């Protein structure tokens, strides 16, 4: 009987001691983070927005691939319909501009983030792609430029996938 009481007392004592050893679940870390400017929470929120923005940019790049494929079909035809070509070129340029806007918004969120340098690479590529698209004339001579653009759009998707991986480390 005495042994049972002793074991119960010891068990209760250990339970109380272990409860006291645990940190209080009072949001102390969150309060400390807020005191420091809420950097962890802000960085995580920005990283989530940036990851979503990069996904949007990848969607745009896939649309660019589709747009340039449409132009390639028109240019490869025996008798190029200039109105169709002009409309397809305008669509491609609009899509490229949409991608630039999304990337610019992403760059504003990328300070202190591993994707910052990758987004700068995307910016340079977008400027080149826009220049190439503006230079298309609707002739067979465009086919080399179109082939280059197809490779560049694929490379842009790869770069943005790397950018998203770099952002992922900031999402908790």
What's the topology here?
Layout: H1 2-21, H2 28-35, H3 39-76, H4 82-109, H5 116-134, H6 142-168
Helix pairs in contact: 3-4, 3-6, 4-5, 5-6
Gist of the model:
81% of the residues lie in helices and 0% in strands. It is mainly alpha-helical and 172 residues long.
| Multimeric organization | single chain
Encode the helix/strand succession as letters: HHHHHH
User: Which fold does the CATH topology refer to?
Assistant: Four Helix Bundle (Hemerythrin (Met), subunit A)
Overall mean pLDDT stands at: 84
By secondary-structure content and strand pairing, the structural class works out as mainly alpha
Count of DSSP H/I helices:
6
Question: What share of the residues does DSSP label as strand, in percent?
Answer: under 5%
The coarse silhouette is: rod-shaped
Determine Rg (CA atoms, Å): 28 Å
Helix content: over 70%
Major sheet size, sense and barrel closure: none
Question: What's the CATH H-level homologous superfamily?
Answer: IL-4 antagonist (De novo design) like domain
- The CATH class assignment is Mainly Alpha
Separation of the first and last Cα atoms:
52 Å
Poorly predicted runs of 5 or more residues: 26-38
Keywords: Signal
Protein name: Small secreted protein
Organism: Colletotrichum noveboracense
Signal peptide: 1-19
